[in-house]
Amino acid sequence: MVSIKILGAGCKKCKTLEAKVRELATTNNIDAVVEKVTDLQEIVGYGIMMTPGLVINEQVKSYGIIPKDEQIINWLKEK
Amino acid sequence: MEKERSKLIIRKIFNRNFIKALPFGKGWDGLLFAVLLFPVWLLLYLNLERITDLLIFSLIDLTPKTHLTDAVWFFVFEVPKVLLLLTLIVFIVGIIRSYFSPERTRKMLGGKKLFAGNVSASLLGIVTPFCSCSAIPLFLGFVESGVPLGVTFSFLIAAPMINEVALVLLFGLFGWKTALLYMSTGLLIAMFSGFIIGRLKLERFVEPWVYQVKAGHLEMEEERIPFSQRITAGYDAVKEIVSKVWIYIVIGIAVGAGIHGYVPENFMAGLMGKSAWWSVPAAVLLGVPMYSNAAGIIPIVQALLEKGASLGTVLAFMMSVIGLSLPETIILKKVLKLQLIFIFVGIVAVGIIIVGYLFNLIY
């Protein structure tokens, strides 16, 4: 199972990314738990300074951008 | 000929990376596309006046020198002009920004003392990617890693105030002198406001939890980004920004066109002219709570300037609308106590007022 966290205190991009990740996980049959992190201290705890942050299995994959679909799928599938 | 020249310019700017790029392959089509598109862009841009004349007087056959014709001409000419400029500049800025990240900026600002730090923070504020929704994580990240409070503020003032959209609109509608004036005075305000905030030692007005935050260490390998990816970043920036602001530009220019065609000359002179001493502070007071993006406000302000408003007043109004936005200050409430927010807004507002008077005096 993949643990996914979306870091963001509620910007527009954060919502877009969350929806996108959820959709990609479902369409690719990836067993994933998606969690939205809005707590500022926790967000900063991951060391990012731009939201949204994408954390997969506790590893920061991207921040400040909405990555391309194929990129996200690759991250979700890698182990 | 045109193509060769633009190629040469791009080669000059991106010298080192360009050489590696020469075997055009996957990902490089982007650059090739941009290089091929540039002559078309240039041709359109340089002939816009002629095209507009052709459209208005030959095709729709409007009578010259009527209010309606003036307004329509203004709209048909300015909208494509600004959008063309915006596309080009956002593309270039998108590529430049890919070289700067908040991490890198933070590292550069880390050991800096006051003033030198304020100067570099203001300059970096222009080129570092910034969105007001990220203001808090950025603030925390800066302060936590030891960037002085005043230096952080210089960054937070410059970043939203001096942005590419505002500069493009100023350049397109007012000319390069005003754009440059706006940029340099904006920089000065960011530097000095941050410097003063630093000197006042206001750390006690920062929420105490801020200094207890333990920022994580980002374990992302700073991989070398290939240049083709930076080109893609340029396209992404165009897609994102132009799709977001074009509607405001169209509406703003439409209102501006209306003012341009129908409002009598010197209408604004009494209200926003030089003789009205109170106009500068009034413009700032009006501008601070107003939250409009630069795209909507600048075309309207340009039309007002034409009707007798003075440059200093107009500049002050624009700066307070763009640089001091209510939503951003509300966001900052999470990390700053009210006193500091008031001091911050106050100092910047005073800076803007000084700039306004200065320009009314000079021009």
Describe this structure in words.
The complex is a heterodimer of chains A (79) and B (363). Chain A has 79 residues and is α+β, with helices and mostly antiparallel strands. Chain A is globular, with a radius of gyration of 11 Å. The model of chain A has no long low-confidence stretch (mean pLDDT 86). Chain B is mainly alpha-helical and 363 residues long. Chain B has one domain. Chain B has 18 helices and no strands. In chain B, helix 7 crosses helix 11, helix 15 packs antiparallel against helix 16 and helix 16 runs antiparallel to helix 18. Chain B is flat, with a radius of gyration of 22 Å. Classes of the chains: A alpha+beta (79), B mainly alpha (363).
Keywords:
heterodimer; A: 79 residues; alpha+beta; Glutaredoxin; four-stranded mixed beta sheet; 39% helix; B: 363 residues; 18 helices; flat
DSSP E strands of chain A, number: 4
Sheet with the most strands, sense and barrel status of chain B:
none
CATH overall fold name of chain A: Glutaredoxin
Kindly give the count of domains of chain A: 1
Largest interface: A-B, 22 and 24 residues
Strand content of chain A: 25-35%
Output the structural class of chain B: mainly alpha
Total of domains of chain B: 1
Determine the structural class of chain A based on helices, strands and strand pairing: alpha+beta
Main beta-sheet strand count, sense and barrel state of chain A:
4 strands, mixed
Work out the helicity level of chain B.
Answer: over 70%
Write the element-wise H/E pattern of chain B from the N-terminal end onward: HHHHHHHHHHHHHHHHHH
Q: Biggest sheet of chain A, strands in spatial order?
A: 2-1-3-4
Task: Estimate what percentage of residues of chain B fall within beta strands.
Answer: under 5%
- Unreliable spans of chain B: 15-25
Q: Could you give the order of the helices and strands of chain A?
A: EHEHEEH
Distance between the termini of chain A: 10 Å
CATH superfamily of chain A: Glutaredoxin
* Alpha plus pi helix count of chain A: 3
